[in-house]
Design brief:
With about 150 residues, this protein is an alpha/beta fold. The protein has 5 helices and 4 strands, in the order βαβααβαβα. α1 crosses α5. Bound molecules: 4-nitrophenyl phosphate (4NP). 4-nitrophenyl phosphate binds next to loops.
Length: about 150
């Protein structure tokens, strides 16, 4: 079984969506994968995903309410087969920590290795719609590539 870890900065906006979507899509596809998410920071450790991420996921029938933010730790290096960073800074931070291979989520679908934009400071739901769409398309493509 492949073990996949999605990593953003706070583990409250983007990577919780990636985790929720990946679990949901993998189940639909009948794929046996183990999925978690984490943050390069511990700013929000123990917190639920942000309200907008909970709301947008719910709109698409995905429940991410039970997730809790955690920071990446060194054990993750040996415990996961794939480590997927949401943006370039996350990738740099992971490589600095000693992670061997880190792929950006924007490597998948047709996003040319783009960052998933940080929606933390977005006030409305528009930004989250776009972020959701990008994460969904990339996660689906990533799962198809396994
Ligand atoms: P995330 O968003 O990395 O997608 O979870 C952020 C959450 C919190 C902060 C930045 C980005 N922050 O600076 O606290």
């Amino acid at each position: 079984m492949k073990r996949i870890l999605f990593v953003c900065l706070g583990n409250i906006c983007r990577s919780p969506l990636a985790e929720g979507i990946a679990k949901h899509r993998a189940k639909q596809m009948g794929l046996d994968v183990y999925v978690e998410s984490a943050g390069t920071s511990s700013y929000h450790s123990g917190e639920r995903p942000c309200h907008n991420s909970i709301a947008i996921a719910r709109q698409y029938g995905i429940d991410i309410l039970s997730q809790r933010s955690r920071a990446v730790h060194m054990d993750d290096i040996k415990n996961f087969d794939m480590v997927i960073a949401l943006d370039e800074q996350n990738k740099r931070d992971l490589l600095k920590m000693g992670f061997g291979k880190v792929t950006k989520l924007g490597h998948y679908a047709n996003y040319n290795d783009q960052d998933v934009p940080d929606p933390y400071y977005y006030s409305g739901m528009d930004g989250f719609e776009n972020v959701y769409k990008m994460i969904d398309e990339c996660v689906e493509d990533m799962l198809h590539s396994l």
